[in-house]
Specification:
It is a single chain. The chain has twelve helices and no strands. It has one domain. The longest helix has 31 residues.
Length: 223
């Protein structure tokens, strides 16, 4: 999954890639997600987890430095972190890769159509033009699975202690973004209220919006 994301990062840096359209699309989608889950953002027990997904899992171009750090320290992590932690991290990076691949292709569609801004109609059109419903379903199912896997992980005191102990050494060694990613993920889910309600609400809303998008609904997000 890291290699997959490294490859995508290289494509983003190519001169012919429509970076302005990509950033426009990601800004639109972040605003859409914030509106869809505004009720969670307004509730303190849920706000950190929503923020984690919006800024870390779906956080624009900032992922590249963190992923480079991950590649450098992977041999050490494989020695010291439990397999379950590594597995959950691989899920997070798969989710990031799927999201990036869709966003990159949608940005190319924007470029072909001469779109420099997005409204609801334009977004729906390029979403359907890219298509690939099975991969969209995989993306939403991964969000749900990642939520439940993080829930199980936050109950393990040794893992939480290890991540906190790594804070100073990681920053000193130049891997601060990576450590912050791990700590933010664990901390946000530790603070959650009803985790099942959180995960299932996200899944229901996103799955419903996806089905409406592919069905051609003009207002798939219910606004």
């Amino acid at each position: 999954m890291l290699a997959r994301n490294h490859h995508l990062a290289g494509l983003l840096d190519q001169p012919e890639f429509p970076l302005a359209e990509f950033e426009c699309l990601q800004s639109w989608q972040q605003a859409r997600l914030a509106r869809t889950f505004d009720d969670f953002i307004r509730q303190q027990p849920y706000r950190p987890a929503v923020t984690f997904f919006l800024t870390e899992i779906y956080g624009g171009l900032d992922f590249r430095e963190r992923d480079q750090d991950m590649g450098k320290v992977m041999p050490v992590m494989q020695r010291f972190l439990p397999d379950k932690v590594l597995y959950i991290m691989s899920e997070a990076f798969e989710l990031q890769a799927i999201s990036l691949e869709f966003d990159m292709e949608m940005a190319r569609q924007m470029k072909r159509r001469g779109l420099t801004e997005l409204d609801m109609s334009g977004y729906c059109d390029i979403y359907r033009a890219v298509g690939d419903q099975p991969a969209r379903e995989r993306q939403i199912l991964l969000i749900r699975k990642l939520g439940y896997d993080l829930e199980r992980l936050v109950d393990k005191p040794m893992v939480n202690m290890l991540v906190r102990l790594l804070r100073g050494p990681a920053h000193a060694a130049g891997f601060g973004k990576l450590q912050e990613f791990l700590e933010a993920g664990l901390g946000s889910f530790r603070a959650l209220g009803d985790i099942t309600y959180f995960n299932e609400t996200i899944h229901t809303r996103e799955w419903g919006a996806m089905e409406k998008l592919f069905a051609g609904t003009e207002q798939p997000f219910g606004w």
